[in-house]
Protein 1
Amino acid sequence: MMGPAHSLSGAAAWLGVGAAATAAGHGMPWPVLVVGALICSGAALAPDLDHKSATISRAFGPLSRMLCGIIDNLSSAVYKATRKPGDSRRSGGHRTLTHTWLWAALMGVGFSALAVLGGRWAVLFILFVHMVLAIEGLLWRAARMSSDILVWLLGAAAAWILAGVLDQPGKGSDWLFAEPGQEYLWLGLPIVLGSLVHCVGDALTVSGCPILWPVPIGRKRWYPLGPPEFMRFRAGSWVELKVLSPAFMLLGAAGGLSAMGVIG
């Protein structure tokens, strides 16, 4: 899928988690619902770090373009080193390492550890990165028409304000993990979810997605999971734009209203 649909699916997924948490008696404070949805929306772009033409490659100027080149080379090297006889020979690392459950888990654990161990500035960094990505994904038309600096300033302002709200007692810094020293441990959850939602979205397209790597399936270690071929679509096609994107909006709205107790 393309960037905007990935971002919409990420936001909808976290709002759905909010609805499920409310139903299970672990309701999210509204800042956690909002911040988590934005982080998940941004994180749903992150697996395309292996693609030099992806939205995320433009998000932070030369720094993100350089990072995309590094991840592309790393992913390609891991693919070549671990492929089985049934896996095709290929150049480039797109839709390999960063499109797996293992990468998603490592990103979630890594960012959670950074948030807990790094203190306020680490939390601000995590929020800033994902706010910028969320703006690039959800408001992509406006972001393309604006300068990068304006998008960064908006992301920084959003990160500063939201971190201040979360720091207030009862507003969510200790949601789900309430022991002393566990503040913001939950930040890794929307990052894991966003990465996995991205992978599921790509699995629906004609190329599939090797979500289960490194678990081998038959003669392949990079097996491209997906539905039957007749149910797949091309990225950017009318199915994505006219069917899935509106569906994500509706599901996200329903999940958010349910999470806030407006609907049961």
Protein 2
Amino acid sequence: MGNTKTIKFSALIEIIGINPFVYLPENVLNFIFLEAGESKGKIPVKIKIEGHEFPQTLIKYSGHWRLYLNTPMRKAAKKDVGDNADFEIAFDKVKREIPMHSKLLKALQENEEARKIFDNLRPSLQHEIIRYLSFLKTEESVERNVTKAIGFLLGQERFIGRDKP
């Protein structure tokens, strides 16, 4: 993680709903808060799980700070819920913005009702949709999922594990 200050810890991978996560020890949280200059909102971090590096966001939910671990992270580390894993974490100073995929932008321009619904979603759900589409590998999967996203916005189908907004 370069010249960035890091701290190491081990933690048990737990799950809340469908989301695997780890709690960070208090000394690790204090280290991140000090580096970030804040202890509120979403805090961008870089993590290594079992030596594999990923960008991630530290989030406070239901009164507890959690580090969520997506499938690619757990697969790379060969770890799953119930396993202990070794971590290294650092505050990430790099601003993170994921641009909206051009096909989603076009679909929203072509469907005014879906665009209005999208524009009124909470920012975290907008970001989740944009982020999901940005990680797709093939144009075919992008097109299929943009169609699903529009259907989701219009209340016609599930998308990203969610019922209609």
Protein 3
Amino acid sequence: MTELLLRGGRPWTPGGELVAADLHIVDGRIAAVGPDLSAPEAETVDLDGALILPGLVDAHCHVDKTTWGAPWTSNPGGATLAERIANSERRRTALGIPSAEYAGNLLDTMVAGGTSHARSHVDIDPVLGLSGVEAVRAASQRHAGRIDVELVAFPQGGFVNRAGVRELMTEALAGGVEVIGGLDPAGYDNDPAGQLDVIFHLAERFGAKIDIHLHDGGTMGIWEFGLIIERTRALGMTGRVTISHAYALGQQPEDEQRRIADKLADAGVALVTCAVTESPVVPVKIMHAAGATMGLGNDGVRDLWAPYGDGDMLRRVGIVASRAKLVADADIELALAAGTYGGARILGVEDYGLAVGSKADFFVVDAPTPAAAVVGAPPRKLVVKGGRVVAGTEDRALVRG
């Protein structure tokens, strides 16, 4: 039996009060929460009032694309989706991408920042085949017990209009990839019904979840929302479908945002926003008011799309909060809830949180409030995964008894 006792921390739950409490962890789960807990045989650390936050969930990243840890790679840029895809496909082989080493480097950085779960989209096309899946799996195995990574078979260069992609996507799902992805069914593939029909069919066949990149804006994007919601309802896939980026929603007036958020909540379709550059951001407060599920993600980090990003989900939560114009502490906490509990719902993480019986995945920071932690992104004092300290500035502070 392995035990860990954290004394005098302040565990956070959305909407709850911050109250000083000890956490007793036994065999990877939270066994008790309360004052003055006794565990004579446990490894113990005094938190001195530090804030305890549940493990961050990066619900949208592309670790297969990263060059993290490689020499600086100049990026020629690209104003359009097609230009960025072309740049990536043209240069990736010479740079050794996808790379299990680079992906592993990024996962290591994510762990150090307190991320306990991630959903990584992995490019699949006739040139790469399933090499990206193999690379990310190898990187994930390198960090087994430190972070859990869910994979999305992602047709970055197109789906129904690119020969061989459907067969490769099928092979990926048959091989255990958990999620099937899509990309702008109307704006990129020019066949919204065709792409969505194939995606939902394969998801049904393999019991997979769905996560569709939807950059399409304006009325076309909103129309595609309707198509996805309609199929989700018709096929009984509540809780298994996610729309990523969802730029069109951020472009709508508030009344329309509320109407669509209500539909998303009713159908059980989640949204993920990354607040990349100046792209529209999903309205955090409206999604919360509707009871719709929302997650956050880093998107690409130091790759052939853009040189930005650092893999720190707490900092990403702050970017989303800023871009969504969240100022009050309670509103900033809504962004934190999306980057933790919301992402956990999207990935289907069981027993998530800081309650008794939850899996012991969390991190500790010195901050007076959760909002202050989001805004300041302070160093992570301790990062705990499965009841084991895996990172942190004070990971040597453990004492016996």
Protein 4
Amino acid sequence: MRKFAVVVNDCAAPPIPGILAIRSRNTDHGDRNFNLNFDELVEGLPDRLSDVHMDWMEILGFLFAADLVCERGAGDVQWAREIELWVPVRDPAYWELRRPLVERIWTDLTNDGLRMHFEQEDDPAPPPRQGREPHPLHDCVALLSGGQDSYVGALDLIKQGRRPLLVSHSASGAVNGAQNAVESNLREVDSSIIRLKLSAGKARGAEAAGEEPSQRSRTFLFVGAAALVAALGGSNEVYLNENGIMALHIPMTAARIGSLSTHTASPPILARMASLAEDVFGKPIAVENRLVHLTKPEVVGRAVELGFGHQMISTVSCWQIGRTSSHCGICSPCIMRRISNEYNEVGDQLYDADIFDDSSALDDPKARDNLTHFVSLVEDLRELPDVDLEFEYPELLRAAPAMTLSEAIALHRRWADQAASVLYAHPVPAGLR
């Protein structure tokens, strides 16, 4: 396990060699290297942010920054990290009481250890200014990532008569392009749709202490920002929409539990985020996933039912899309996307590697491992008795409070049959059975 010490805005000087510095502003010890901008989220709210609300956004932003600068090692043994983090806040005593839950949520998302130290902020940034116009009338806040699930979730909300206010985390050019495209598509359904942008990442032109691409904690910042808008804007309801297979995300092998299995929309983690937000904002906050009972093919099928299947091509899915601006074709999200689009006979983007029909693509060890493990998982979900599935894939037990264990197993068996109908129609995966 790799160990790191990180200090934000030079708020402390612990006697630890090799400390990494995160600076959201210039200090006496160095220039700004991290950008956190949530002005768009705030300008339409009825009141300026309080000290607690400013601390909330900055803590989540700095946790995301720590995730970015603490680089993981190669292989599963060096994947996990132990991070000690010093963060300046306006009320250290207040946040110390909430530290255990903050640390637990972050650890659940990242599979890393975290120990936070809250230091007194002597030079706090002022809250963003209010704009002249309030946010448009809305009854919930929905996250829009540029992926298929968040798009279909938002589309479904609108078609059900809801009025979501959309929130996105600005990222790479490819992701921003997909977000713009799906926003435009949603405006075909509701011309009043508005999307607010949150920016967090390496400051332009700055030398970052590290550049870790996994970004497992982004959901904490993403949901936390949406919760602030929902709480202070009065809707009190946040939607993070992701299909149930990826929400539970059982690992394809035991070796992938930490390194290649994300918990972006894990039901118990979302429940803990809602509990923390309720405590901070002093009112009930719901963090919900309206797609959790659907498989990925069923999510795409919902878009087809609504008449928007042809727009699936404008979304992005690949784990490395932010770095390559293309779909690799070999990562788990690419495989799931291809299966789901083919299952529903909708158009798709080109993949860099065709691991379904081109056997030479498996010369890449990562491609071979991913497809082999994917096929193995599909076969387990189709053939193993329920009791064996519980033993082999204990993540199924973490479906609550969204669904029961039996519902989670049924969901995965249904998905496995859908995946098999596509996979085994192609020569390469059929040959791996």
